[in-house]
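I am still getting used to backbone structure tokens and would like to learn alongside you. Please make up or recall a protein chain and show it to me in full. Would you write everything just below, so we can both look at the same thing?
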Amino acid sequence: MSVADAAPISRRAFLAGSAATGVVLLAGPADVRLAHGAVVRRYPFALGVASGDPLPHRVVLWTRLVRDPLDAGSMPRRPVAVEWELSRHPRFRGARRHGVVRALPRLAHSVHVDVGGLRPATDYWYRFRVGRHVSETGRTRTAPEHGASIQHLRLGVANCQDWQSGYWPAYTALADEDLDVVLHLGDYIYESDPASAYRDRLHTKPHRSGLNQLFTLADYRNRHALYKTDPALQAAHAAFPWVVTWDDHEVESNYANRVDADPHRPRRQGPVRFARERARAYQAYYEHMPIRVPYRVGSPNLRIYRRFDFGNLLRLNVLDTRQYRTPQPDGRGGGYGAEDAGRANTHGTLMGSGQERWLHAGLRSSPARWNVIAQQVMMSRLRFPTEPGQTQYVTNLDQWDGYAPARDRLLHFLASARVANPVVLAGDLHASCFSDVRLNFDDPTSQIVASEYLATSISSGFAPGDDAALKAANPTLNPHIRHFDGARRGYLRIDVNRQRVQVEQRSVDTIATRSSPVRTTAAFVTAAGSPGVVPA
């Protein structure tokens, strides 16, 4: 079905108008049901709407029906018919695409609609209906056509949103940006027990309290749903298509493949039991994300590494550095340790051999001006100041520093294959860190093979003492780091054209309140043909 041209109206004006006037019901019967399906009498869209994984002619639309957002078993144990609608007009005038899908109880009544037949590089608006209930309206955008000569692209990068650490004014600010797509690089939820200074920011209580982790499928579903109730996060999802990947806290802190990283009994589990926990966590992640992946209910495996092309301007390689990695070399579940342990980890891998081959092939064959590697943990070396009496440098062995030989393989590949303009994006550290990625970090004159831009957290904290110590020590210990800031929370705004990538650290003043101004607190660029980061 063809779609009508949209009348000129700004996204900000439309969203503001929708909030002021409320939703408009779609035409149709008072109740929509399937044979033996359930009728929903309460408003079921309390978790909002989202879109993701944009391709030139396709995009995934998402919602999940709930009766009580914090009770995973509160919906009827029957399928529910959900009507979806998509239009090029923000008020759904003229021609539209629409259909009906089943929201199944075995997938927590989540909906993933992979809409095809769309126009490249085009804005669309979408919504869902169940009976008389209509969701809020979301805006999405398809990617440019493969190989098209694209001159400009705008990205947002977010990660690490601990509900209990504070509020998310960064997402309110992000929703008001002018972006083509948002990347989320992991730690979408945190698995810890309820314990917060904010009475309205307590985690849901897991089935087994006192162990600081989640176990059951309902635990993971309730935790995801809690996070999805945040209005700022809902607004950011509704404003843009997202491309997401996970890190560790979506399952358990510092886990590696099927190895439970927690060293404390009785919390630590063997690989068979931990695989069952991971399967529940992966299912809940799939149920709550606008993601295009092949999923089989109950499987402990879920391939989420994937690739997106934005014309001939940018190729985006999205990695998974959790599911296939070998254990951290300290044998204690990661964290800080001697740098030599990472250097000696000759058999260690963060990606696994299959994903590594896939990445190399995609980079080698890329026609794009810019080749972005979006992944979870810091790739550049980060030495921490040593304490008196220490004889070795200390690093975070859960990052690429714990897998130094694997990092060397990747960096030497980037150099030997002459990959065009590699840019690494990362999160996890809860600090902004912009670095020259050198072939040999021990040699400050070594070849720069890539640029790394690490986004600070949405709300997760960075120790003030570590922030001050690293800022003082970086010129000596980490001279390849051009900018470091662990004091601020926020996100990255990235503007890409054919001449350069410009990255801005967008920081909120506080996370102690729901509203806070946002400011650009750092701006750096990488010029095409000249790897490395320099002040804008």
